[in-house]
Amino acid sequence: SHFSWLLDRLCLGPVPMYNASTCAEKFQALPKCLDSIRFAEQVPGWDVERRSAAGKLCWSLRDGDTHGISGEDIRKKCDSLDPRCLPHALRWTEDLFGRSDVRDALGVPDHINFTSLSEPVFAEFAKYGDIIQSAYRLYEPLLRAGIRLLHYVGAQDANCAPAGIMSFLKLLQSPFQEEFLRTPDVPWPTNEDATVRVVGKGAGNMTWILIDGGGHFIAHDQPELVKSIVEHWVKNVPFD
């Protein structure tokens, strides 16, 4: 679902990030990406060669020039000081946990390094094709066992675009699938804030919330609204 809908956000979203020529090139590669995923999942077990090949092919859909638009929030431009185009908060976190007084207070040994985003760690996951798996299927036994599932998503996120997340939620085979597909999205708490889709009593057994005015780090962008969402969820209070 992620790669199926990735170019929809990058090329056809409210803020197109790729230009026309890049979109044409990437859309040509999309069927090959999706076929490589099917090929990798055809065999039982974990075929590293197939999955890593699919990962490289599909990840190339993300390497186009975004013209300075942040994938974490399409309303924002990348920080020129960070070539990775990541939010300031990640650097602030590294600075905080790198301070000797903080490390001493937490009892962190000197030889342990804190890094917000580690390229070597990412490379190890990529080497084994970790991203090529239908991880959303892990939700199915949880839902059948009565574990409640909440997804709240920033509408301006292009890293994990809302359309891709909604796609796999629709595909989940659970006791709530048919009702989830029939249930409309309704405004909450206002038309300008968010929409909610709730299946089940209270805050729901399976709930989707699309939040306007927020990107990938939605709790950072809309802290008060996210606090209210979590309080409703923990107390199992209806979103009305």
UniProtKB/TrEMBL annotation:
Keyword Repeat: no
GO BP term, pick one: proteolysis
Tagged with keyword Nucleotide-binding: no
A Gene Ontology molecular function term of the record: serine-type carboxypeptidase activity
InterPro entries given in the database record: AB_hydrolase_fold (IPR029058), Peptidase_S10 (IPR001563)
UniProt keyword list: Carboxypeptidase, Glycoprotein, Hydrolase, Protease
Top-level lineage group: Eukaryota
A Pfam family this chain is assigned to: Peptidase_S10
SUPFAM superfamilies: alpha/beta-Hydrolases
Family designation: Belongs to the peptidase S10 family.
Name the UniProt record assigns to this protein: Alpha/Beta hydrolase protein
